[in-house]
Structure formats: C-alpha cells, structure tokens
Amino acid sequence: MGLLALEFSDCYLDSPQLRDRIRAHEAELDRTNKFIKELLKDGKTLIAATKNLSAAQRKFAHSLRDFKFEFIGDAETDDERCIDASLHEFSNFLKNLEEQREILALSVTETLIKPLERFRKEQLGAVKEEKKKFDKETEKNYSLIEKHLSLSAKKKELQLQEADSQVEQNRKHFYEVSLEYVCKLQEIQERKTFECVEPVLSFFQGLFTFYHQGYELAKDFNHYKMDLQINIQNTRNRFEGTRSEVEELMNKIKRNPQEHKRADQATMEGYLYVQEKRPAPFGSSWVKHYCTYKKQTKTFSMIPFEHRSGGKAGDLEAFFLTYCTKRNMDTIDRRFCFDMEAADRPGIPVTMQAFSEDERKLWVEALDSKGGLFINLNRPNTRREGSAQLDKIGFTIIRKCISAIETRGINDQGLYRVVGVSSKVQRLLNLLMDAKTCNEVDLENSVEWEVKTITSAMKQYLRSLPEPLMTYELHGEFIVPAKSGSPESRVSAIHFLVHKLPEKNKEMLDILVKHLANVSNHAKKNLMTVANLGVVFGPTLMRPQEETVAAIMDLKFQNIVVEILIENHEKIFRTLPDATFPEPISMSIAPPNAPPRQSRRQGQRNKRPVAVYNLCLDLDDGDSHSSPKEDTPTGSMDSLSSQSPTPAISSSPSGPDKNHLILDSGDGGEWATNHPNLTRSSMVSWMNTPSTTTATSATATATAAPSSIPFPTPTTASDRPAESVVPRKARAVYPCEAEHSSELSFRVGAIFEDVQLSREPGWLEGTLNGKRGLIPENYVQFL
C-alpha cells in the first residue's frame, strides 16, 4: 500500500494519525535521499571507470599506430601494403570511438549527475529546512499551551485575555506552518518521480546514442573490413605457396650444400681461425674471422666475429694477397692450417686454420693463383626438365585438357587447387605426350580420367617445359611493374612485355589465360577467384633461373602478374602495345596544377556535439549519409592485386564502394580544413540538411580551383539543380592518373560521354574511349 494523503484539515487537529502519516512521508524522503546519494556515487564511479577505459583504449590505439611491419624483399604487394596500413586504420577507429566515449562521459555529468545533485540540494534540502521549522514551531506551540494552562484563575481578567490572545495567535501561526510543511511534503513526493527519472532517461539516451554512433562507425568500417579480409586471405594463400617452395629449396640444400652455394662476386668466403702472435711469455692465440677472397682483384678481407658474445664484429681488415701455401704438420701443432702473405707485409706470413681438411683444400685452391676454384659457382639451372615442348603435340595437349575441363568441371570447387593422384597424372601425361596415343585419349567423355587428374596433368606439362612459358629472359622485367606503379601503368607494362615473348610462348599463354579468365568468371561456384588462380599458376608460368630465397620471395609478384593477365586478357592479347616501354607511375603525387581530389570514403567519422545526446533517436534511416552499400560475398570477389600503392594522403582497396584509410590524426584536421569538400558536419550527417551540404560543396569547389590556373572553373554537382540527372558530356580541365581500377586516367581536353552523378560523393561516372569509370568531379567542366 502506498503513502496516505496528508489532509490539510487534519493540520488543525494535529492528531496522532496525522503525525504517523507525516513520519511515513519523511521516512520515504530519507530513503529517496539515500538512493540519490548512492546513485550519484555510482555515477561518478562510472564516469571515472569510463575515463580509465578510454585512456586504456587510447593507449592501445597508440600502440597499434606506432608499430609497422617489415616485409622481406625490396617491395610489397598491394595486399601487404593494406595489411601494413591496417594497424593505423584500427588505431583511427578506436580513436574515433573514444572521442564519442569522452562525449558520453561529459553528457553523463551534464544530464545525470548535476540534475540529481540539484534536486537533492534544492528540493530535498528545502524539505529538511521546512521540517526543522515545523519541529521548532511544534515545540514552541505546545510549550506555550502548557504554560498558558498553568496560569492561575485568580489572575486579572485583562491578563487572562492577553494570555488567551497570545496562545490563539501562536496556534494560528503553528497551523500555517503545519499547512506549509504538509504541502511541501506532498509536493516533493510528487516531484521526485519525474525529477529523478528524467536525468536517468537522459543518461540512457546518451548511452544509446553512443552505441548508435559505434554502429555507424562499424558500418563505415564494414567495407574496409571485407577488403582487408581479402587482403589477408590473398597474403595467406601466397604464403602457403612460398613456404612450400622455401622448404623444397631448404631440403635440396640439406642434401647437397655445395651444389647450391650461392654465386656472388667472392671467389671464396667462410670462417677461418687466424693466429695472432704475442710476446714470448704469452705464446699465441687463435681468433675466429669471417674471410672473403675476390680472385679477380686478389683482395683478401677478414673481420673478427664471435657468435658467443652476441655476434659482435670487430674492424674489417683487407689486403692484397701475394701467395698461399699449405702448412705442414711438423711445423705447427694444429691441423688444417695454411700460410698466406700480404703484399704490404712481405716476409711475414699469416697462419690460418680451416674447419676441416676439405675446406683447407678449397681455400688453398682458391687462394693459389695457379689453381682454379673447385666449385662451379655459375652452375646451370638444376630444375627438372622433361620432354615437354612447345610443339604441335604440346598445343594439342593444352587444348584437349582445357576443352575437357570447361566441358566437365568448370564449376568444380577448388578447380586447379585439388590435385590428382600422382600415378594417374603421370600415366595420363605419358599418353598425351606420346604422338601415337595423344589423339586416342578422350578426356571429354571418358570417366577414367577425373577432372582433378586432367588439371594436374596440364600443370605438370607446363612445369616440365625446358623454360617457363614467360621465359627466363623476361622474368625480371615482368616482376618490375608488379612491384610499383598505378594499375594502368602495370597493365601497360605487362601488355608491352607479353608481345616481346616468342610467338609460340605468346600463343600458348593466350590460350591458357583465356581459359583461366573463363574459370574466374565461374568463381561463385568453383571458388577460384583471380587471386586463387594467380597463386596456382604464378609459379607455373614464371620462375627465376636461379633458385634462391630472394627469388622465392618474389613469388607473390609472379602471382600478381598472372592476375593482371587474367583480368586484362582481351586488352593484352587482342591489341598492340605502345611502341615504347611504359615507365611505372607513382600515384602518391597528384598532377602539379590539379585541385585536390575527393577522398572516396564511406562517410566522414566526425565528433558529434553534446547536444546530439539530448535528441531522441527517432531519425529515419534514410537521413544518414553513411548508408551501407550492398555487401559482396567474399568468395566471389577478385584479388586486390591491381590496386595502386598507398598514396601520401589516403589509400583504399580497389572498387568504387571501398573505404579509404582514415587520415593521420596529426594533420587530418588541418588538411580537412583546407579541403572542406572532404568533411561533413555531424549534424548534417544526422539531419541531412540540403542547404548545408550545398554550401559545403560550393566552398570545396572554390577551394579546389585556385585562381592562378588559367582553366575555367569546373562545374560541380552542387552548381546544378537537384533534378538534373540527364547524361551529359564533359571535358577534362586537369590531367588525372587513376588510383584504382574503377577510375579513369585522362589528359587535359579529354571528352567524356554519358556523364552522370556517382554514388560516391565528389565523383562522377563517365565513359572515355569505351571504358566506363569514376571521374573526380572538380577535374572536369560540363559541355
């Protein structure tokens, strides 16, 4: 049962029942006061914990931002660049999230703590003051009554009347105080329900707004996350191929170390112990040195190196060698020794000790000017060679295999990755490579040969060629464009190099790549994307002449070359290249007179003002500028290998709907201020105010086109009426080099057909020379 009402009429009687009801109201207010006090304490603890969490998250974000991966080799793939930049992107994501958390902590203070403290101080404190006044008047009233009743009846009538009047006046005042106190009690009981709950509601409103902001950030992050997953998967697939090659090379070297000795400019190199003579009482000592001898210049160099002391090296010593001779056992108490003399120290031989007799022989033969080196450093390629040739039978084998695969198994999952039984593969290959039985083998209708056996036989044939299909000679040239340049410059370079191949090689490569492009078109069923096919056929179509770990590390770039061939088959094999070899173009620098380009990000991640946390979350989903794009299944997406290198300002995976990496926090604010078309106000993002967006875009156009450039000011989307969606022509007023495969490269004066607004803010879609792609909005002028 709830509290009983305090009737004003009972205040005059001041009955025990009224006093009991007043005490019940007072007890309830004391309980409410304790609750608010505890709530304030917990709220302040929550704020402190939120700030501590925010500080820990920021520290974690700084740790992510400050670390950078180092990759093996002289270049990184686009996937590795994106992975390397991912830690910085994660750091930015946490930073943006913690900015919102700080706003939440501030809103808790403003919307919860201060209102409750104010209610406790002003309302509950006022009741306490009224209670003190009521208790004081009660004591005064009943004391006066008792004193008045004790007056003697023998007093004068005038004195008695004065006493009666004073008591009556005091009782009237007590009655007024009682009424005010009762009224205050009932008022505060009614007020507490909304005065306490409203701040809590505001707190939850801010909390839900924070979670909603996190959801918006997660939506912005989703496309980048999907692309990064593909980058990681591509890198993992390449790692698996690289690891198997490295392990194979390691096992070969284990079996025959000397045969795989790496050729370099040194005639001989290795560890030797050098005798260092001391004064007579101390004898001599032997110090380990790493020695190198270059026979052409007769230069011998050595550097002391001790593995047990942490690998600390001493100073390098070099001299010209005059002679070397074997040291006999009867002249020294050590084995495997030989003497050598330097030109600048005639008559003073230096005694060396090898690790074994065989090593001493090698050193003596190398150092002796009359002898030759025992090891052939310029060894021929030791790779397996078969009888496979690029002849009529070879073309027949490839065509028969491709026809059978496309007829029977184009949709088989893991096509080319699932290998056949080696004995069956070898038997099929023997039949196909025999001119007598080749035409008799029916691969399309025979159930004897599984699809995986046919694919393995075809790959085995290509590996058995005396020289890889893309030749040893051009191997290094093919690798170079895969390591640098824009997507279009890579395609142009590989286009040029393909047409340098011997005619038979180019014809075979054309047949094979056309088939692989067909396989990739069925990736939704067979899961063999362009990236997966690149991993399978990169080492098959390309390989270096010499097996080294550094060459194996370039396998990932071989994969990229194959991916580019598959993605651009028609252009590369059906058109003639430019007359000159295209130089790789770095995409980190914009054209000198060009305005800044719109960053293609999935919405700007800005702070939201505190006022946002006092709004109700009843906004329509359509009001948000950062609406998610349609997700693309990972299994059906191609490789990101044709992306551009990471630009100086931002980088993004290829494709029109992919997120760029967020600007570095150190200069992002200044850069965004100088380029207002790349940022949007939080309130614009929430409320979708057209006038604000238009003003921002117009300001961006003014900023983007400096007055010193003699070209006309380009017309942007903000200068056109909203209903203008009719395709139009436009002329390029600035040159542009594409950063992504979805963008167009063009020169000043290029004419674009069918130009329309793009879903990407600050970008247009148009057609140039039959290719459709994205165009920076402030780089063109409408005709």
Supply the key terms.
783 residues; alpha+beta; Substrate Binding Domain Of Dnak, Chain:A, Domain 2; PH-domain like; Phosphatidylinositol 3-kinase, Chain A; six-stranded antiparallel beta barrel; five-stranded antiparallel beta sheet; 12 strands; 50% helix; elongated; GRAF_fam; endosome; GTPase activator activity; SH3 domain
Architecture blueprint of SSEs:
Elements: H1 9-13, H2 16-66, H3 78-149, H4 157-255, E1 268-277, E2 284-294, E3 299-306, E4 312-313, E5 317-326, E6 337-342, E7 350-353, H5 357-367, H6 392-408, H7 422-433, H8 451-463, H9 475-483, H10 487-498, H11 503-521, H12 523-526, H13 530-541, H14 549-553, H15 555-567, H16 569-574, H17 668-674, H18 682-687, H19 690-704, E8 728-732, E9 751-757, E10 763-768, E11 771-776, E12 780-782
Antiparallel strand pairs: 1-2, 1-7, 2-3, 3-4, 3-5, 5-6, 6-7, 8-9, 8-12, 9-10, 10-11
Helix pairs in contact: 2-3, 2-4, 3-4, 4-13, 6-8, 6-11, 7-8, 9-10, 9-15, 11-15, 13-15
Structure description:
The chain has 783 residues and is an alpha+beta fold. Among the domains are: 12-68 and 76-138 and 189-252, Arfaptin homology (AH) domain/BAR domain (Substrate Binding Domain Of Dnak, Chain:A, Domain 2), CATH 1.20.1270; 267-367, Pleckstrin-homology domain (PH domain)/Phosphotyrosine-binding domain (PTB) (PH-domain like); 411-574, Phosphatidylinositol 3-kinase, Chain A, CATH 1.10.555.10; 730-782, SH3 Domains (SH3 type barrels, Roll). The chain is 50% helix and 10% strand. The protein is elongated, with a radius of gyration of 43 Å. The relative contact order is 0.08.
